[in-house]
Amino acid sequence: MHFLTVSLVVLWTSIVSAHSIPRASAAKCGKKLQRKPWHTLSTKEKKDYINAELCLISKPARLGLPDATNRFEELQQIHRIPASISHNVGAFLPYHRLHMHAHERALREECGYKGAQPYWDEPRDAGKFSKSVVFDPVTGFGGDGTGPDRCITNGPFAQYKNGLGPGYSISNPKRCIHRVVNDTVSLASGQAYVNTCMKIKYYIDFWPCVELAPHIGGHGGVGGKMLDPISSPGDPLFYLHHTWLDKLWWDWQACDLPARLRDISGPNVADPLFVPPNVDPAGLPVFFPALETFPPVDTLIPPPGSPLPEGDPGNVTTLSHKLNMFGVIPNATIRDVMDIGGPLLCYEYL
Ligand SMILES: *[C@@H]1O[C@H](CO)[C@@H](O)[C@H](O)[C@H]1NC(C)=O
Ligand SMILES: *[C@@H]1O[C@H](CO)[C@@H](O)[C@H](O)[C@H]1NC(C)=O
Ligand SMILES: *[C@@H]1O[C@H](CO)[C@@H](O)[C@H](O)[C@H]1NC(C)=O
Ligand SMILES: [Cu+2]
């Protein structure tokens, strides 16, 4: 439903003029980074990843983005600022693909991380998120929230406080990472829902399929900070969840590369009347978290000056749609991110 509240308040009245962005470097992709499921990583690989994330948290902000006090929060800001033009639109999957890449690059280039961005293979945990290894307090991201404020109380991020959110608002004092793990809501990350999406032929129907059940399964199954449609990258699990969604898109593309390396569509502007259905396209039920666990509606209104879509000739998402990374990495277009084995991204999924 938060996706609904966001779209309800989105109102675009103008099309901004395009100006050119430097294209991705023409360098070839050599050795691809191998993105693996979290549960297959060794304890050392898990620790290396988490330590690199803690390193991003320890690095000062450098881009001058409002309210971001460290590098991790700059990566959260580049999700928050354009949130209204990267959800419930055709750019949903491409935008998040580039965002995952920006995060992976920051870990590697700024924090000495040698691995690739891992993903949460959610179907193995669907319906039983509360037992997932991702919540391990020693080798994972800490457990469920407890107490009235639902703060996480163990694991490497228990001491971290984040001021970005709820929604577009700022918290002062900063808040803990909070979670409200819900096994029922996590059912939507199951294989049956993935299969529904994989059967779809065109992106125009594929993208909303992924944004419904699998997307909500992870955000709503973890709950709390992860359920915040604007500020959820304040919980490091965000990156494992969205990397899994990116893998779903790639798995689908790989079924018909000649067509699907170019298949992009969808609106550039979210439909203000969109109401997420409570069944997937195959009729499987999708359970939403309780309304009161979402951020307050008034925090989900995009502030004045929020970005507008750029780069397309009309109101439909095209390959020339621009993806603004706000200086964390260079901007790119959707064309640049269609192939994960291309020169810009250069990774593969195991
Ligand atoms: C989990 O979410 C479902 C669907 O919103 C809700 O009915 C149920 O009460 C929640 N469970 C817990 C333990 O909060
Ligand atoms: C997109 O633009 C066309 C032509 O101006 C218009 O007919 C159509 O209704 C628009 N679609 C949306 C979703 O705004
Ligand atoms: C990225 O795109 C934004 C929006 O078009 C633009 O303002 C910014 O200057 C671009 N950044 C770079 C480094 O080109
Ligand atoms: Cu998002």
What does this structure look like?
Helix 4 crosses helix 8 (237-254). The strands form four sheets. The chain has a two-stranded parallel sheet. A two-stranded antiparallel sheet has the order 2-3. It has helices at residues 2-8, 43-58, 71-80, 92-111, 183-186, 191-198, 203-222, 237-254, 257-260, 334-337; strands at residues 33-35, 145-146, 151-152, 161-164, 170-176, 322-323, 332-333, 347-349. The protein has one domain (2-349): Di-copper center containing domain from catechol oxidase (di-copper center containing domain from catechol oxidase, Orthogonal Bundle). It is mainly α. A hairpin with a 4-residue loop joins strand 2 (145-146) and strand 3. The protein is built from ten helices and eight strands. The structure holds 2-acetamido-2-deoxy-beta-D-glucopyranose (3 copies) and copper (II) ion. One 2-acetamido-2-deoxy-beta-D-glucopyranose is lined by residues 267, 314-315.
Give a quick set of tags describing it.
Tyrosinase/Hemocyanin, di-copper center containing domain from catechol oxidase, metal ion binding, Tyrosinase copper-binding domain-containing protein, mainly alpha, binds copper (II) ion, globular, 350 residues, oxidoreductase activity
Provide the succession of SSEs.
HEHHHEEEEHHHHHEEHE
Largest sheet: 2 strands, parallel
Q: Give the tally of structural domains.
A: 1
The share of residues in helices is: 25-40%
List of distinct ligands in this structure: 2-acetamido-2-deoxy-beta-D-glucopyranose, copper (II) ion
List the total number of helices: 10
**Span between N and C termini?**
33 Å
CATH superfamily: Di-copper center containing domain from catechol oxidase
The helix/strand class is mainly alpha
Low confidence ranges: 1-24
Instruction: Tell me how many strands there are.
Output: 8
Write down the CATH topology: di-copper center containing domain from catechol oxidase
The CATH architecture would be Orthogonal Bundle
Strand order of the largest sheet: 1-8
Estimate the mean pLDDT confidence. 93
Query: Radius of gyration over alpha carbons?
Result: 19 Å
Strand proportion, as a percent range, falls in 5-15%
Indicate the overall shape. globular
CATH class: Mainly Alpha
Organism: Schizothecium vesticola
Pfam families: Tyrosinase
GO molecular function, one term: oxidoreductase activity
Domain Tyrosinase copper-binding: 235-246
